[in-house]
């Protein structure tokens, strides 16, 4: 009897994030209320996140809203943004570093695996590093697992890959 499987991963598409960056930068440059202010957007390190710049915390939040809007228009979950860092204000300028989340944490993987085991008796979730492989004899059951996992409140962007 054939078995089918798919992987649950938490990742982001670098090309799409580059598009988000370019669109957000263009909107910031064209906004009238940002003229003459340090409002802007920069890359962190090796394009692993954004650095938001503004005159104050309120302007950093406005830039963050623009980034979220651009993510939504490209159908990317805003859960990819790690908003845990605080705004740093100095020299009449405020900055906030927002790295991107990559990889499924062990806690999230365990939570998802437990939810799958509780709901679907024939599906077998296996944690493999920073991803989760789910196997079953039924494609229909795997699709039901995908729907169930999408409905969970997980603080990470989830993708389903390698459906075989």
TrEMBL record:
What's a Pfam family this protein contains? YajQ
Instruction: Answer whether the UniProt record assigns the keyword Nucleotide-binding to this protein.
Output: yes
Answer whether the UniProt record assigns the keyword Nucleotide-binding to this protein. yes
The UniProt entry's GO CC annotations, sorted and at most eight, read: cytosol
According to the lineage, what is the superkingdom?
Answer: Bacteria
- Mention one GO molecular function: nucleotide binding
What keywords appear on the UniProt entry? Answer: Nucleotide-binding
Described by its record, this protein's role is as follows:
Nucleotide-binding protein.
Cite the PANTHER family for this sequence: UPF0234 PROTEIN YAJQ
Family to which this protein belongs: Belongs to the YajQ family.
Name-wise, this protein is: Nucleotide-binding protein GII36_02950
């Amino acid at each position: 009897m054939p078995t089918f499987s798919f992987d649950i991963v938490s990742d982001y598409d670098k090309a799409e994030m580059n598009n988000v960056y370019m669109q957000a930068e263009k909107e910031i440059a064209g906004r009238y209320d940002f003229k003459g202010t340090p409002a802007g957007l920069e890359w962190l390190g090796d394009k692993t996140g954004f650095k938001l710049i503004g005159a104050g915390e309120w302007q950093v939040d406005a830039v963050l809203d623009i980034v979220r809007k651009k993510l939504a228009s490209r159908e990317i979950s805003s859960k990819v943004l790690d908003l845990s860092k605080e705004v740093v204000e100095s020299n009449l300028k405020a900055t906030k570093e927002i790295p991107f989340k990559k990889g499924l944490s062990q806690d999230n993987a365990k939570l998802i695996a437990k939810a799958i085991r509780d709901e679907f008796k024939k599906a077998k979730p296996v944690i493999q590093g920073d991803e989760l492989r789910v196997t079953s004899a039924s494609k229909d059951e795997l699709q039901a697992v995908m729907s169930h996992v999408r409905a969970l409140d997980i603080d990470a962007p989830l993708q389903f890959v390698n459906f075989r």
